[in-house]
Design brief:
The chain is of the alpha/beta class. It is 27% helix and 29% strand. The chain contains 6 helices and 13 strands. The protein has a 9-stranded mixed β-sheet, sandwiched between helices. It has a two-stranded antiparallel ribbon with strand order 2-5. Helix 2 packs across helix 5 and helix 3 packs across helix 4. The longest helix is centred in the first third of the chain and has 17 residues.
């Protein structure tokens, strides 16, 4: 079984974000980068499936050389090889097109990725990849089991779960509790140094979108503490300052 796991190189959620050049460029100085948390779930499930049924795992990232440490961590967790498409991930369609271009001739049985990245939170890449390749795409996937050439999945829907069966190959956008995150051990870290990381150039160069400016959310206002017994003051503030009643 051949599995392709697509991972993102994103800022840790605890990092303070800022911008430069008139708020047109992301300032990466001092920012800790990680594998996208939802991608971590996809990779963990891929490792479990490989342990159960054998096969190989390839991790794929669209990004520059700064992504290499993140990719090496994925190799340490259990992937066998890696591909980095040497391009800035400009938008969802660009990323999806590059993934599909690599996957079309790879003979992969499944393409796993997170349900969304945590930088732009678009949640569109898995659907676009499935459409470009003409194969089923399911998201957000909470469980994934394989029986023969059939994948059995449960995905989250409003108010419950939906159970889906598809034939391989397919694309899945993963989320918890599909698997538990895996922490690389020393053996995995050492072996990751010698595993192949192939860098390929992008298949397309045109820009589908153009960034104008980044904006940070407005700072939250101060909190006013009110004694639990002072209902009159609470009502007064809600009416005259917050203006919600």
């Amino acid at each position: 079984m051949k599995i392709l796991v697509c991972i993102t190189h994103v800022p840790d959620t605890t990092s303070r974000i800022s911008f430069t050049d008139g708020d047109t460029k992301f300032d990466a100085n001092g920012v800790q980068f990680i594998i996208g948390p939802y991608d971590d779930y996809a990779l963990a499930r891929a490792v479990e499936l490989k342990e159960q049924s054998g096969g190989s795992i390839t991790v794929l990232n669209v990004g520059g050389p700064e992504s290499d440490p993140t990719i090496r961590k994925a190799l340490a967790i259990g992937a066998d090889e890696a591909i980095r498409i040497n391009a800035e991930p400009k938008d969802s369609l660009f990323v999806a097109s590059e993934i599909a271009n690599v996957a079309k001739d790879g003979g992969y049985d499944m393409i796993l990725m997170g349900r969304e990245s945590i930088d732009f939170n678009g949640g569109m890449v898995h659907g676009m990849v499935g459409e470009i390749l003409g194969i089923p795409s399911v998201s957000p996937v909470m469980t994934l089991d394989i029986e023969g050439d059939t994948a059995m999945m449960a995905r989250e829907i409003e108010g419950g779960k939906e159970y889906v069966e598809v034939k391989m190959p397919f694309v899945a956008g993963c989320q918890e509790p599909i698997a538990e995150w895996k922490i690389p051990n020393m053996r995995g870290i050492m072996s990751a140094r010698t595993k192949p990381l192939n860098v390929v150039e992008p298949s397309i160069n045109e820009e589908g979108t153009k960034l104008q400016k980044f904006e940070l959310p407005e700072e939250k206002g101060a909190v006013t503490m009110i004694d639990a017994d002072n209902v009159e003051e609470l009502v007064n503030l809600l009416k005259n300052e917050a203006k919600v009643i």
